[in-house]
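Protein of interest.
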Amino acid sequence: MQGTPLPHRLVAVWFADVAGYSARAAEDESGALQLIEILQALSRETVGRYDGRIVKFIGDAVLAEFSSTALAVQAAAALSRAYLEQSVASGEAHSLTVGVHVGDVAVSSEGDLYGDAVNAAARIQEAAAPGQVVVSQDVWRQLRGRREFNFEALGDRSLKGVGPTGLYVARVDDSAFRPPQSIPRGNESDEETKKGIRSLGVLPFADLSAERDQEYFGDGIAEEILNALAKVGALHVAARTSCFAFRGTSIDAREIGRRLDVEALLEGSIRKAGNRVRISVQLIDARNGYQLWSERFDREIEDIFAIQDEIARSVIDALGLSLTQREERRFLKVSTKNVEAYEFYLRARKLFQQWTRQSIELAREMFERAIELDPHFAAAWAGLATAHVYLFSWGGRDPDLQKAHDASTRALELDPELADAHVAAGQSFSMEQRYVEAAAEFEKAIELDPTLFDAYYYYARSCFKAGDLNKALELFEKAQSLRPEDYQSAALIAAALRQLGRIDEAHRADQLAIEAINKHLELNADEARAFNLGAIILARLGEIERAKQWNERAMSLAPDDDAILYNASCVFAVLGEEDRALAGLQRAIDAGLAGGDWVSHDPDWEQLRDHPRFQALVQRLRHP
């Protein structure tokens, strides 16, 4: 079966490349990497200012597209001039070579461009001398009559894969460097624009370290800043899972903003070498691609905590916001000064995001290494407690539950106001069906940090297990209000409504949940849990074939995961496939499923609630 043809459009495209980069990299790697940082920052600002789109960065080169040929050449000239000026900061001035062409391109779903026009622009760029903007004969024909452009003929050149074509060096009068009036520039008119921004996405920081082995560090710094900004009540911050799905893509900032439903983006890069760290960040208006603020930090690694704080506060200032006294108290609290311990902590956080039993085991080890280096690191103790909670939920091992209690207790001894530690304690109490004690811990976490999604979400799950469905519903709704894009809370709102007998409301909630799941899968195409929960909802909505397809997809992605196997059995239960449902539940229990109290309140089992085999399996879950 042939795939759907890619859409085509006519655009102006250019390639820009740093002249002499390879020689510079051979003698001065640090300076060469700084040249890339300057290129990327200037390209984003300039291309957005001229109403273009960055397609992708390729090493020391950049590909951009424009709907206007004139704007493409103006942007290329502006970038070339600015780059010559700013590259001096690397220790040595460098020029760009730029090739511009206009033609038909194919556009992938990720925003990448393909076709002869792209190849032609790359070949034209190779023909340019340092500092030159060279255009094709097609570009020249469109602009030759305009007074702001001057052209010098280079004659016909035979370009590989393109053939003979006439080339011209393009020059633009200074007056043409004014950007389109519809796009704000500098500090001249965008103060009100900045103050109107109330939603933000924080993208993963690119790893520019020589060995490319610091992704965990860049992710950790970006996540810490994201979590800090999420504590600002006046600002909606998109969830980490959604933001980090754009790692390594060539999608334009405006498109990312549209998909995340945010008005601004914070992006950056990090380079760590020895005891030095360089972090470059910029705040971009996602509505037009224009840069609002940028900064570079070149410091000792011990300053990493101060850098994070400075970046987060600079974003708040740039958006015209301020912290309340309560927000200030919980803003970017750091519970260690040991950078090595902090690095192990960040490694553990990175591993946690993979959500497999093996990755959680490794995360546990990393948290333990952090604690060995700093026994007073409260956040690492809280992380260790959470790791043991998840390991217990997968395997039901009592030692994990006791270790979760011990670790969360130690975290709270070190920092009684650490909300994450209260959440971990609440989860471990909930696992033991000590729901009153669990509720007290979750309530304390919410009191300390009313913006903490996990506190509401896991408190809601605990209430659902305990049979307090009205409270669970209230908390799931609160969790979703904090993180509107979260599909899990949306799905569980529908489950709670169904169990409460509010069928019409549950049906509407199912429809909203499937919308959230579809949106999530656009960014995370291989997430088993999203397919899993979506399959249950599709089965309820009567989309039988699609439900079966999604169920198979989930099980193919995570064939041994007990939670995936459990939800797959729920799909069969909703579809009325009794034997497959009970066999699937059996298989999930064999794989380590715990929590018979959840299963006994799950509305998906309504038709099998009185089945002897189902009752026996629930008893086995309650008394493993």
User: Anything to note?
Assistant: Residues 430 and 438 are 5 Å apart (CA to CA).
